[in-house]
């Protein structure tokens, strides 16, 4: 079974093309393949391209815990780069159909920059969704109790759910300590991605990320989009925002209606072949 491995600022994915061979992944298969000791190792599997009635291509995004993600900004940049590498697209823009909505992608002439129109961020509790008391509302600067601590948070969606927590200073240790508790908090019926957000200036933020279904993550496009939108919602950042992450920087343009354009790289790593015995006895 052949995979192409890419990373986007250290967030790595395996691309599986079902047009070359058609393997149906079980939950246990996904977990084994993504495992960094017992499999090929990755933050997820991208299955595509397949046919879509609404867009040029369709993409399925599989998390390393075997679940399916609605959208992934880094995954979309990687998928766009893969399509360019195999000659399916050129420098013109094209659309990709995901579980979290249709997005528009474009790859630069030298393949170094991929731009993705991520869609519009919503803070509405019934859209994200978030379990709250009372009528549906925007969930902004509310409190959540996590592991004995009370935190202020913003909830958002850009096709997948996010919990953004503004802090004075972000840290890997804090993210690992609290990430799983927040991901699985009863406020979030579909679980949630988690970002700790530090404001650096009006055009730069810094985040640490706990990704739903993957854990601590070096970079994330959808997390960057959600955190950037929250910074705009707070009134502390302007339209153009650079997002600093452990894996590197992503550029965002977020308009007054919270539509997000994301720009960043995707790097080709290797062609990998998985042998069937890897999937036995797991």
CATH topology of the largest domain: Diaminopimelate Epimerase, Chain A, domain 1
The CATH architecture of the largest domain would be Roll
Order of helices and strands: EEHEEEHEEEEEEHEEEHEEEE
Query: What amount of the residues lies in strands?
Result: 35-45%
Main pleated-sheet profile: 18 strands, mixed
Question: Short description, anyone?
Answer:
The chain has 282 residues and is an alpha+beta fold. The protein has four helices and 18 strands.
Describe the model.
By secondary structure, the protein is α+β, with helices and mostly antiparallel strands. It has 2 domains: 2-113 and 266-279, Diaminopimelate Epimerase, Chain A, domain 1 (Roll), CATH 3.10.310.10; 142-263, Diaminopimelate Epimerase, Chain A, domain 1 (Roll), CATH 3.10.310.10. The chain has 4 helices and 18 strands. It has an 18-stranded mixed β-sheet that branches. The radius of gyration is 18 Å and the shape is globular.
Keywords:
single chain; 18-stranded mixed β-sheet; Diaminopimelate Epimerase, Chain A, domain 1; 2 domains; 17% helix; globular; alpha+beta; 282 residues
